[in-house]
């Protein structure tokens, strides 16, 4: 016995769904890095100096490496680093009134320069590990 009625809708393309999910994951990784930078900008000097700044640097390194591992692509590790860079360096810039969020102290230097170094190290490690060699 055949069933009458409207035909079944065509199957949705799976590739478009994957692209949306992948793009959303990259956006979330970028926002995670930006939140780490934002929180770090206000908390880098708490505790014994520069212990908190070093902890935020280690967190950025771990986030970038785990993001690259999770996405299986180097750009996965780059997204949290880019978010961190944008948030941290925008807040490190002075205003017309002369106020800055990240001060020129040892903790501030460790936060900015250490975070930059760990972001670069994680990006290089991700590109070395998850880049595909050129096929001849």
Features:
136 residues, mainly alpha, 4 helices
Write a compact overview of the structure shown:
With 136 residues, the chain is mostly helical.
Question: Can you characterise this structure?
Answer:
With 136 residues, this protein is an all-alpha fold. The chain starts with 13 loop residues before the first helix and ends in a 6-residue tail after the last helix. It is built from 4 helices and no strands. The chain is elongated and about 80 Å long. The longest helix is centred in the first third of the chain and has 30 residues, at 14-43. The protein has helices spanning 14-43, 51-71, 74-92, 106-130. α1 runs antiparallel to α2 (51-71), α1 (14-43) runs parallel beside α3 and α2 (51-71) packs parallel to α4 (106-130).
- Helix count from the secondary structure assignment: 4
Q: Which percent range describes the beta-strand content?
A: under 5%
Number of strands: 0
Low-confidence stretches: none
Oligomer: single chain
> Whole-Å distance between the termini?
57 Å
- Helicity level: 55-70%
- Radius of gyration (Å): 21 Å
Computed structural class: mainly alpha
Question: Given the C-alpha coordinates, what overall shape results?
Answer: elongated
Order of helices and strands: HHHH
Largest sheet: none
Mean pLDDT: 86
Q: Secondary-structure blueprint of this entry?
A:
Layout (H helix, E strand, L loop, with lengths): L13 H30 L7 H21 L2 H19 L13 H25 L6
